[in-house]
Prior knowledge:
Layout: E1 18-22, E2 25-31, E3 37-43, E4 49-53, E5 56-58, E6 61-67, E7 74-80, E8 83-84, E9 89-90, E10 104-106, E11 132-134, E12 158-161, H1 163-167, H2 181-184, H3 187-196, E13 200-203, E14 207-209, H4 213-217, E15 228-234, H5 246-260, E16 264-269, H6 286-294, E17 297-298, E18 301-305, H7 320-335, E19 341-344, H8 347-350, H9 362-369, E20 377-380, E21 399-403, H10 404-414, H11 422-428, H12 432-435, E22 445-447, H13 457-460, H14 501-517, E23 521-525, H15 554-557, H16 559-574, E24 597-600, H17 609-612, E25 619-624, E26 643-649, E27 655-658, E28 667-673, E29 682-684, E30 688-691, E31 695-702
Parallel strand pairs: 12-13, 12-23, 13-16, 16-19, 19-20, 20-21, 21-22, 22-23
Antiparallel strand pairs: 1-2, 2-6, 3-4, 3-7, 5-6, 7-11, 8-9, 10-11, 14-15, 17-18, 24-25, 25-26, 26-31, 27-30, 28-29, 28-31
Helix pairs in contact: 10-11, 14-16
Amino acid sequence: MPRPTQTIPWPGHWHPLGATFDNGATNFALWAPDAEQVELCLFDEDDTETRIPLLDRTFDIWHGRFPGVGPGQRYGYRVHGAWDPARGLRFNPAKLLVDPYARAIDGDYLHDDTAVDADHPDDRDSAPFVPRSVVIGDDGFDWGDDEPPRVPWDNTVLYELHVRGYTMRHPEVPEELRGTYAGLAHPAVIEHLVGLGITSVELLPVHHFVSEPHLLRQGSANYWGYNTLGFFAPHADYYTGDAPGGQVTEFKAMVKALHAAGLEVILDVVYNHTAEQGGGGPTLSFRGIDNRAYYRLDPEDPSRYVDYTGTGNTFDVSHPHALRLVMDSLRYWVTEMRVDGFRFDLASALARSMHDVDMLGSFMTVIEQDPVLREVKLIAEPWDVGPGGYQVGEFPHLWTEWNDRYRNTVRDHWRCMAGGVHDLAFRLAGSSDLYADDGRRPYASINFVTAHDGFTLRDLVSYNEKHNDANGEENRDGTNDNRSWNHGREGLEADADPEIGPLRRRQLRNIMTTILLSTGVPMITAGDEMGRTQYGNNNAYCLDNEITWVDWSLLDEYADLHQLVRTLLTLRAEHPVFRQRRFFEGRPMQPGGRKDIAWFAPSGAEMTDDDWHDQRRCTLGMFLSGDGIRTRGPRGERVVDDSFLLWLHSGAEDISVVLPGHPWASRYEVVIDTAGGEILAKRDAGGTASLNGRSCLLLRAEL
């Protein structure tokens, strides 16, 4: 290794943190309060390292300014200090460290398979194996007339996708752009998104991440990206070029293109843990800078990590500096990269104070008060793996939540194992049992049935069991609680069976109809609208291949499903009765009027207490009154819409239902029949309609 240079840096300034280029020089600033010495390591084009000690220290921040060092410069840090795991100290200057504030990161983590003793320092130099931070300057990006779409929550339709997997097999995206930010911004991709009717793309993690050692040992890699290394840096592998730092500009161009099409960009962010894992994991950044500040350690034994995330460590946002880092990162992505919101992975871990989840704790309080972040979309995954971590329905007003109660109920209903329709009614109407008691709105519920984690929609109706052998863990990984149903035979080959194949397709239509007509915010997983499959794999986090990439050829095979989704989203956009901003009250807006919502049994009578407690019941009618909308328009005007009656029947046998008469309607028009009925058929109120086994029927009510 080269000897430390004798060059003396200019003092520079302690603020801002990270590497800041201006006027021909770069200022470096690193917070490391317990360090005894900090060396800045500069790498030239042939990867020769030059180490320069930072001589100035202000407010526990080591800093220096370097003339002639500019954008594209690759760098890292070596931090000297005590190695004392019993006190939580794990300084080791043999380890090259990524700057926590790096705006770009270059290179991969290459795992050295030599065993490491977590209780003793590893004196092997890590520089050949770890990524470099990159200096970023003003790229001169022209945002032009870019404006955030600011889609209201009640109008929002989320679409969860993977930047790489979404375009790797897209026939109209040039091969050199597939799997990149530029590929996602391609007109053919945007045309599909806009044509589908979604409003907001939710991107699986794009913070720079690396793969876990156990995956590298078995020759695979982390595909989903829930293994963050850099909270400010766009993941470099989604960049079309190879010039260090170019990923920043390409990400901005993607956001600009999506905004121009009216689409919001939501980031799935992982602040609850980092890629360094537990004590035996790689030292890449935070552990070597200040292990005690960045991670939750066992107060009885600080050599051990508290793990609320299942990854070996938990990022400690109760510490002021760790919290500052997260807040600076969030604001950066909004102000500089112009994203429109965030979905927080394992958000309960961020809300913990000392041990318990605390919705009045520092992280939640700071978010609530921040003038930038309180204006963007905030979505919680409202659980972690620690005690008391399940917090569905408990997040504050600004937050929406992934509602797994919705997911489970809808899955159970359509396999006729829900134990009645009582819970289904709550989910269809916005989950007031979860969100109404503290003044939240129906759009607090993110309604989903599938996500990246678990079966795709097609696999949900094709497999009873997970098939994760390709993951290399002997099918032990992934949940066993899939609430799925193969309809008689396991696997996709049964699609050719004339009894099974059509029924599976109908179930796809049933579930999509349920999601997109429920009150709340619907979320679709990318490719579900065209029958995407992962061949029964419900935990494909480590597969970067045709199993996880969206197969665009399915658009032709599942054209009926794709068209149904477009039709449903058009209905949802045109009719505010499906996008309620306040919870239903089950009573008329005006004396003598129709109730804002009513529930019907197949007899055409409103549901009774006995009906609600009948665990064998699998048919429910929901009437939404267009003259019962309880929110006013932007000028205070009353909002009036058409009224609709939705029947959901998960039983195997065909049945007849009576269509409610006065005061609900005089006639009904069939809008959607998932069993393939006549779309324009008219039905008289008081008469009957036939519901095929396992089907939905949506009718427009006419007075």
